Amino acid sequence: MLWCIIENSLDRHSFFGNGLSTEGTMGKMVIQILAAVAEAEREHILERTNDGRLVAMVAGVKFGRKPHQKSAMIREFISQSATVKLIIEKTGISRATYFRIKNSPAI
């Protein structure tokens, strides 16, 4: 992908005005080194993130969206076959929230 960018949009680019350029074998080598460093850093970030996620799971941290405060009331209305309009008016929730709660598994 990096070479596509260089070939399509950058004919020649000078870095920091100190004579380094993307042109020639040295320029290509500099680009490859920078790409390798960026890839290694990205992998390092992913490792740290996954390690932190595992520590949090072991500590019992719950992931995901918190249950809606009125979900029990809404499920009760749904079980009584109340209309969507009535439930929305009684609870003050949006249609999107209603359908999200209705379609999600009960907790």
UniProtKB/TrEMBL annotation:
This is Recombinase family protein. Gene3D superfamilies: 6.10.250.10. Residues 1-60 form the Resolvase/invertase-type recombinase catalytic domain. It comes from Salmonella enterica. It holds the Pfam family Resolvase. InterPro entries: Resolv_N, Resolvase-like_N_sf. GO terms for molecular function: DNA binding; DNA strand exchange activity. Transmembrane segments: none annotated.
